[in-house]
Amino acid sequence: MRYAQIVIGPAGSGKSTYCTEMQRHAETSRRNIHIVNLDPAAESFEYKPSIDIRDLIHVDDAMEDEEMHFGPNGALVFCMEFLLENLPWLENQLGEDDDDYFIFDCPGQIELYTHLNVMKKLLEALELWNFRLCAVFILDSHFMINASSFISASMAALSAMTTLEVTFISILSKIDLLSKKSKKQLERFLEPDVKDICANDTAVVNSKWNQKHQMLTEMIGRVLEDYSLIKFAPLNITDEDNLANILFMVDNCMQFGEDRDIKMAEFDAPDEEDEDNDDGYEEGRG
Ligand SMILES: Nc1nc2c(ncn2[C@@H]2O[C@H](COP(=O)(O)OP(=O)(O)OP(=O)(O)O)[C@@H](O)[C@H]2O)c(=O)[nH]1
Ligand SMILES: [Mg+2]
């Protein structure tokens, strides 16, 4: 079995930073996490990827093609489809070592996760190659400023969750950048009570459109709430305990380490009592 976090979310939400910090944090407990850069348009990031889609195709290759004339977004989708057509390349790059742990740093084009099927197909391939997966949806915590943007961001997360059909964790990033006041407000969004959020929404008070549609925002919010679909975990990259908690949560979702415990249990020397009575039952049973 192998393990992979699939880090997705809107542009600039902090995906690559999450990957860098997770890898660094894991190293402090001597855990080796490989990062795969899946963004063909990436210009720079702080980690050193073990695998880089840009070795296969770069977004400029697609944009500069004289026949295709792609703009940046079309070119990016083209690159992801090109990757799908060249899955043996990725399979080969990933090797086949048991217990390997990867983090995939994905592009920020939200349509890849909400309605196109490119990512879904990629995840299916990974599952076929014996990967256990957890999608990590990163959302900038500055979305918390008002109810309507929080709810539309939650809808995007929900859409990705239903499209990708793998275990899913949503994270609010850049907590270290929030003011004291915003940090206080954060709690409202971690265990959201939609009615309360909407009632205190300054954007609703200030905009005619929002006043008119407040009821709709509230109803959509209530659906999300009723089905416990909006649960976000806060991420503060300056807090090692926080990083440890998030890694623990994601590991749990993938049952990382559980198989290893089973393997170790198999190698435990049997008790003497058990040797005498090796039918697997305690005395007096059966
Ligand atoms: N202080 C702080 N800055 C952050 C954090 N996460 C991201 N940033 C900054 O936000 C900007 C965007 O972060 P990235 O990690 O590149 O975001 P991304 O989601 O990978 O962006 P794309 O790949 O372009 O979609 C960078 O300038 C980061 O340094 C965070 O948790 N704290
Ligand atoms: Mg990035």
UniProtKB/TrEMBL annotation:
Biased composition (Acidic residues): 268-286
Subunit (UniProt): Binds to RNA polymerase II (RNAPII).
Source species, domain of life: Eukaryota
Protein's UniProt name: GPN-loop GTPase 3
Pfam (any one): ATP_bind_1
InterPro entries noted in UniProt: Gpn, Gpn3, P-loop_NTPase
The species this protein was found in: Daphnia pulex (Water flea)
Cross-referenced PANTHER family: GPN-LOOP GTPASE 3, XPA-BINDING PROTEIN 1-RELATED
